[in-house]
Structure formats: C-alpha cells, structure tokens
Amino acid sequence: MLLTFLSHQWTGFWRSKSKTGTVAAQLLMGFLVLYLIVVSIFVGYSMEEIIEKLLPGKELMVVFNGMILYYYAMEFLVRMQIQELPTLAVVPYLHLNIPKQKLVNFLNISAIFSPFNILPVFIFFPFIVMNIRVDYSLFACIMYLVTILSLTVFNNYAVLYFKRLSTGNIKIILAGLLVLFIVGGLEYFNIFSIASVSNVIFQAICSYPLVAICFIVLASAMFLINARFLKRNLYIEELKSGAEKKSSTDYPFLDRFGEAGTLVALEIKLILRNKRPRSTVSKGLIFIFYGLLFYKSNVIEGDEFGKMLFAAIFMTGNMTLLYGQFMFGWQAAEFDGLLANKTNVRTFFKAKLLMLTIASTVLTLITSLYGLISWKLLLLQFAAYFYNIGIGAVIVLYFATRNYKYIDLKKGSSFNWQGVGASSMLMSLPILLFPYVIYLPVAWLYNPYWGLTAIALLGIAGLFLRNFWLTALVTSFNTRKYKIAAGFREQS
Amino acid sequence: MIIEISKLNKTYAGHTVVDIDHLVINEGEMVGIIGNNGAGKTTLFRMLLDLIRPDTGEILSKGFNVAESDQWKNYTASYLDEGFLIDYLTPEEYFIFVGSLHQMSVADVAEHLKKYQEFFNGEILDSGKYIRDFSKGNQNKVGIVSALMQNPELLVLDEPFANLDPTTQIRLKAHLKQLKSAQLTTLISSHDLNHVTEVCDRIILFEKGKVIKDMYTTEHTLNELEDYFSR
Which residue among B108, B128, B151 closes a domain? Predict the structure, then answer.
C-alpha cells in the first residue's frame, strides 16, 4: 500500500501541469540540501577546531553540550516556518477501502523524509564518535547518539503536530511567540540559560548513559500524540483550516481615496485572508532588522551611505519588492471578473501605487526607530523612501504587466517557486541598482549628503510625474491584457 | 440593435472555436445560446467581454468595438464562472464591492439584496463564510445576483442553471422572465433545452463555432432542438 501511495505521488509530481517549474524547483531544492549536507559534514568533522577558534579557553565538552539544545530550539523555529504538512495528499484516498491507520502511517513515514532529519547526524555524530567514545565509554557514546536521534524525531513530529493544531488558529501562534520572547528575555538577562540546561542534561548522559531513555520515551510519546491526533482528525473538513465565523470588514480610512481606495481595501483583504500573500508579507517584516546588520557605527560615522543604501531601500520598500514581484498574479483567480467589471484600468493602477505607497510609508515609519542610533540614518531612509514610492513602485508595476503567471494563494511561501519567472527575477535588479547609479557619482564628485539628496529628489520628481507613469502603465497593460488574462486562466 | 458581431473568428492551434460571419442582437431580446461542449459559447462570451482577443473581426456593443473602448462596462453585467468571484471575500463584501463600482451605497446594496432573499434561501447572507467556502451552486447564486444587482442593459450569463438546486432553477427562470423588458437584453447559454426554450424568445444554436440555427421561440422549438441534438 505504502508503495502505491509513493508511486502515486511520483506520477503526480511528473504529471503536474507546471512540470518544468516543479522539476526546476526540486532541483534547486536538491542542490540547496546537498550544499547544506556538505557544510554539515565539514562542520561536523572540524567541530573541535571551530569551537577552539570561536571560544578559545572554554572547555570543549561544555560548549558542545551547551550547544545542542540551542540547535534544536533554532531548528524547531526554522522547521515551523519551512517544513510542509503532507496532509492534503490523502484526501482522494479517504473514501476508499483503505484502513485509516494505513493513511496515518503513510503520513507519518513520509514525514521522515525531510532534510532536517539528516543534518544533525552529519553535524553532531563525528564529534560524538571521536570524543565521547574516548573520554567516556562506548555505551555512553551510543546513548548520546540515540539522544540526538530522539531529539530529531521529537522535533520532526512536534512541528507537524503544532502546525496541524495551529492551521487557522492564530492563538497558538501568538502563545508560541510569547513563550519565545520570555525564554529569549530570560536568556538575555542571564536569569536562565538554555546553554547551561543543555550542558547539565548532556553531561548527565555522558556520565549515566541510561538517562537517554527519557529522550527515547519523549520522542515516542510525541510520535504517538501526533499519530493519534491525525487518526482522530482525518476528515476533509478538518484538514482544511478555519471553521470559525468569518465576518465582513471594511477600512473606512481608505474611503477618501474613492474607487482606488476600494480596490486597496480589496487587496488588503487578499493579503490578510490568504496563506501565500500573508506569509510573504509577514516574512518581509523580518527584514526590518536588516539595519542591525548593515548600520555599523564606523560606517555611519564615515558617512559611507553607499554601504547602507541597499539595506535602507530594502527595508523601506520590501513590500514593493517581495509582494510586487508577483503582481497581478495574486489576483489571477478573479482576474476575468476584475476585467469584466466596471473598473477602469487607470484606477486599477492608481490603487496599486496607492497600496505600495501606504506600505512603504508604514515601513518607513517603523524603521525610523533606527533614527535613535543616528539622525543620519533618518536622512538615508527618507531618501530611500522617496525613491521607493516615486520610482521603485513604478518599475514594479511595469514588470507586473509582463507577468503571466497564476499564483495559488492557498500554498505557503517558503520554497514556493510558483509564479517565479524571468520578470519577477529581473525586477529587483534595476530597483536595487538604480539608486547606486545616482548616488555613487554624486557622492564621489560632491559629498555623500548630496548623493542622498539626489536620490530623494529623483523620487520626488517621480511622484510629480505619476500621471505620466500611469498613462504609460495603462498603455503597457492594454497591449498585453489578453495574454495576462489567458495566462492566469491556466491554473497550475 | 445592441450587439453586432461581424467576421468574428478565433482559432486555437488550428482548431476553429468561434467563426461568426454576421450576427445581430436587438435591444430587449432574451437570447439563449446553445450547443454541445466545444461549440464556442464561452469563448464567444469572453470575446464579448473583452477577455479574449478575436483573431479577426469585431464585436460592436451599442456601436463601439468592445476591444477599443470601455464604454460597454457601464451597462453590461456578466457572470461566466467562479473566476468572476473574489473568493476570499464574504458574499456581503463582494456585493458591496461590486455595488461600489456602480456608485451604489451600502444601503442601496442591502436594499437590493432584499429582493433576493427567497432566491438565496437563507444560505448566502450572514453565513459567516468566505465565498471560497460555499458549494458551487451557492457560489453561482452569488455571481448571478451580483450581475443582476448592477441594473444592466446587457446581461451575460454562462450556464446560470448549472449546479443550482431545482427550486432555485425554477425561481431563477421566473425571475428572468419577470426581468424581460425593452431595456434589458440578455444572453444566456445553457445545456438545458427546457429552460432556454421556456425563458428565451430567441435561440441561437452553435456547432463548432458556427451559427447553425437562429430562430424565435415557438411551441415547436423544443421538439426541433431535441431532434437536432438526438441525431
């Protein structure tokens, strides 16, 4: 039976409508995994040297022991973001004469085939085999390995379990975030440290290897909880999310923008109520921490805005770049309706510009907190802001008129290459490079502040020319609208 | 005459889907478009709504080529398939959105929807669901009502009876008959010969993109069509 399921998945993969896309995506995934494995092997074999280099003078075992729970805590978070639930694949089998247990087994077994489950083997095993066997005993070494495997299994099924629990349940996600903040805070204020807990636990395993049995029990328990939950909830309606009552909402502050405002409200709902755009936008929010990486005090003091320009543009305009790159594919499912309705193409584009402007404004206001570090950053970010709303948004929309790819809103955004095409790949290049073309010569000829002024002025000029851009965009759209609509009708 | 189609041709991969030399639809007519699968009904509707570009020829709506001016949108309402619905909205939000495009206030929309309470059978409004969570039949109802709500002069419905329960089919038929007026032109495609002959006063039969029969409905029409299709 299991083999039949697997062969169905295999044929399904090869016969999917967007075959070339899926194959390319899987190949890219494969290379990424391969790369990660190579890195893991390297890290695993040179663990000793790495620890000695990074933390000289510390005892090797203490660092290594302390690291393990950290690794699994981080892994848990990454898995929560990336690991996909294999649930929906079973829907066509539910009504057939197949025992439920078999379906559950299939889901559980197929969940093991995840790159996350091999990486720890490569990272931790070499060090354990080389060190613990020598320092302690062979038995301790084996039990240590078993603990690592148990933790991996535990994480694997815990993530699936929590993801299943939380589909459509925002409370659990919030609770999880809260726990995270508390633990992080305790760690930050040195009240409680994962590292020391981890050290105590693994020290115990080295000395009393039978302690590892606890972890085997823990992993088995998690596996069973997940299996039981699955078996009890294997119904189509429960595999889908959200049984809670949906209510109508409106955004009064958008009313003043007339019809364009109505269209913006529509798009905000699109983002909030669908999985893929929601995760795209929420991931974009993470990028507001880019400043912490790029805004270094010596760079700020030296007025080297060139080194920070990229971060500023990306932070204030990441909605434009990340959400905009798939425009209008987000609306592919209802595109025919939008065209046939009494909407005007010009208003449609006006609404897009308005939305991107609102998004950039909000992001700029949030990132203005970086102004606490230095007022120069405010200059930089506002220059980037004007550029984004004056020029960036227009470039994005221009490329959007050359995008014919349908996007399935129900899928997650991690490693999802649906809708990625030449236009969406190329789009970010001019947007990110163009400011440098303006800034570098001016900064070199005069001074960096004039460079920023030039960027800001360019953006403001772009704003004044909006009507001109709109006409150009509408013309560009009208020549391709049949092709766009036809492309969107071909759902993959 | 509200619609004039001339020399219209659309070919996909060497396969002619629509091929109409000349066809005129007059104001106030309720026209049934019938034909087997692949006859080109939906493609014709899509070209009429400027969603597909014809290979040759043109469709004039009130004298303007639909591909060249947006004029027709002011008096045309349509529902072809679920692709016309915005599936992440609640039905109320969708009606209000469509209404706002026609300068209808929220109160206007609510007033209008009252007329359709019977048609909705209590399942659409206040249901606490997004459109994507409804059954196909109920999605159909949302689409049809949103088209009717726009007070159009030209109404285009692609298989409106499909997926509807028998009660709603009967109610829709009655409502369409009641809508009949000199100001409203309606184009309906359907596979149900009984329904179209009952509702429409003119029937156009397509086969492989060509007009095979074009007739005004009489008491013999149904038999004639049944003969044709059972050949």
Answer: B151
Residues B198 and B99 in one domain: no
The CATH number of the domain holding residue B158 is: 3.40.50.300
Q: Is residue A376 part of a domain?
A: yes
Q: Measured between beta carbons, which residues in chain B are less than 8 angstroms from residue A255?
A: none
Which chain B residues are Cβ-neighbours of A266 within 8 angstroms? 86, 89, 97
Shortest CB distance from A482 goes to which of B52, B86, B90? B52
**Among A274, A258, A377, A259, CA closest to A316:** A377
User: Model's pTM, two decimal places?
Assistant: 0.69
The answer to whether A249 contacts B93, with C-beta atoms less than 8 Å apart, is yes
Strand order in the sheet with B64-65: B15-25, B3-12, B56-61, B64-65
Domain end: B130, B151, B172, which one? B151
Would you say residue A103 lies in a domain?
A: yes
Residues B176 and B163 in one domain: yes
Which residues lie below 8 Å from residue B188, measured CB to CB, with a gap of 6+?
Answer: B30, B31, B32, B33, B157, B160, B176, B196, B199, B200
Query: How close is the nearest chain B Cα to the Cα of A163, in Å?
Result: 21
Report how many domains make up chain B: 2
Residues B83, A340: C-beta atoms closer than 8 Å = no
Q: Which of A206, A239, A272 is the last residue of a domain?
A: A239
HSE-up (13 A, CA, CB side) for residue B97: 30
Q: Which residues of B touch A344 (CB under 8 A)?
A: 70
Question: Smallest Cβ distance to B102: which of A250, A339, A342?
Answer: A342
Residues A34 and A56 in one domain: yes
CB crowding A253-269: b at 16 or more within 10 Å, else e: ebeebebbbbbbbbbbb
Q: Which domain holds residue B100?
A: 78-151
Say whether both A178 and A300 belong to one domain. no
Q: Are residues B229 and B208 in the same domain?
A: yes
- The pLDDT tens digits along chain A (492 residues) read 777 777 777 777 776 655 666 677 778 778 888 888 888 888 888 888 888 887 777 788 888 888 888 888 888 877 877 777 765 566 667 666 677 777 888 888 888 888 888 888 888 888 888 888 888 888 888 888 899 999 999 999 998 888 777 655 556 666 776 777 777 777 767 777 777 888 888 888 888 888 889 999 999 999 999 888 887 777 655 555 445 567 777 787 887 888 888 889 989 888 888 888 888 887 777 777 778 778 888 888 888 888 888 889 988 988 888 888 888 888 888 888 888 888 888 999 999 999 999 999 998 998 888 888 888 889 999 999 999 999 999 999 998 888 888 888 777 666 666 666 666 677 778 888 888 988 888 888 888 889 899 999 999 999 999 999 999 999 999 888 888 888 888 775
CB of B128 within 8 Å of a chain A CB? The answer is yes
Distance CA A409, CA A406 (A): 9
Complex ipTM, two decimals?
0.71
On whether any CB of chain A is under 8 Å from the CB of B166, the answer is no
Q: Are B78 and B72 in contact (CB under 8 A)?
A: no
A333:B83 CB<8 A:
yes
CA distance B102 to B95: 11
Closest Cα in chain B, distance from residue A261 (Å): 11
Sheet containing B76-79, strands listed edge to edge, beginning at the edge strand earlier in sequence = B76-79, B154-158, B185-189, B30-34, B202-207, B210-216
Tell me how close the Cα of B91 comes to any Cα of chain A, in angstroms: 9
Task: Check whether residue A235 and residue A260 sit in a common domain.
Answer: no
| Number of domains into which chain A is organized | 2
By C-alpha distance, the chain B residue nearest A410 is B88
SS3 A167: coil
For A409, the domain range is: 253-489
**Scanning every residue of chain A, which has its alpha carbon at the shortest distance from the alpha carbon of B52?**
A482
Whether B92 and chain A come into contact, CB under 8 Å, resolves to: yes
Contact across the interface for A266 and B128, Cβ inside 8 Å: no
Same domain, A224 and A329: no
B101 interface with A at CB cutoff 8 Å: yes
**Distance between B230 CA and the closest CA of chain A, angstroms:** 33
